[in-house]
Hints:
The chain has 379 residues and is α+β, with helices and mostly antiparallel strands. The chain has twelve helices and 14 strands. The strands form five sheets. The chain has a six-stranded mixed sheet with strand order 6-5-9-10-12-11, with helices on one face. Strands 1-2 form a two-stranded antiparallel ribbon. Mean pLDDT is 88; it is low at 175-181. Helix 7 (189-201) packs antiparallel against helix 9, helix 10 packs across helix 12 and helix 11 (329-335) packs across helix 12.
Amino acid sequence: MLLVYVSESAVKPVHLASGTLEDAYIRSGGTTRKASRQEIGGLMLNSQSPHFEELHASMLKSIPEILDALDFRTIYKLLEKPIPQSSEEVVIWMQDEKMIKPMNLGYYITNFGALAAAYRLQDFDSLNRKVIRVIKYKGLNKKETEREFPGTKGYAIGFEGLLGFLDAVLPKSEIIKNALREDATVYPKIALREVIANAIIHQDFTIRGAGPMIEIFDDRIEISNPGKLLPTKKIDRLIGTTPESRNEILASAFRRYKICEERGSGLEKAVLAIELYGLPPLKFEELENSFRVTIYSPKTFAEMTPKERIEACYQHSVIKYFSSGGMTNTSLRERFKMNEKQRPQVSLVIKDAIEQGKIKVKDIHNISTKFAEYIPYWA
């Protein structure tokens, strides 16, 4: 005897493969009959589109197999919760976390469960190309690869290890702190953390064969993810705006795991750190089928291109608008690490930014350019 169990569809009404949606059937009074147009309409209204994170990533597994595949202990540490003593408690918690789904006598690991906590993402056929790749090149282009470091762990359990690895391979500069010499990376850790977390959370999982990538060059780091910006987002409005993610379950979990924020202040912190380190502005690029953020190594004002100076001016105006209300010549000079004698050079940058429509004068009645405040064009 062969028993076949077909789960109820939560996505849409079910119809014969040889027909159309008009050929949908329903159960009524213990019998199966063809649904009316009104009933089909009601079924469509009550149906839901499944999130990628909720889809099955594995075959049916037993409790020991689930516990061997997912590193639940690290997730408990991230949540700062004590680890339960019994496997049954862990399994119930995993269901609440949407890491697994019960089915008959076993459990399915969801895409979210694997992406967050898998010991080895390569063990899941549909996700093995979603691992984070770190590639280090020699020089300023991709002509010669020095080393490649493919990731293996799920995003949440491997995130701190990834940052530690980057800290070890990125170039260092010697600083004096508390009268002692110590090495520090030329890239701010908080900027790397926020940009990498954003690349993981906002990637488009429907694009197969591609995942987040971190490419290290001698003068920059390029962090990319598959998928373009959501239609409601614009490149020049990413800093400080209301967050919106196509992967809500993953974004919410990363916030609870204290990996990122959902308040929209992550990029603000990244830009503040970039300014503090005296780096060129963040570069946002929407490519054919991906999105890329570039963090450059330190450059002086003289080494920056005119385009970089104007973009730095715009990003600084956004940060000042959300904090103190407006950018001034003095605040921009401090951002560029310049002295009072270089005020005219900064004034030229402000003038060019106004002409290109990036910023505007906050108070048009203030005729003093020395004390004028400037805000983003959209403010």
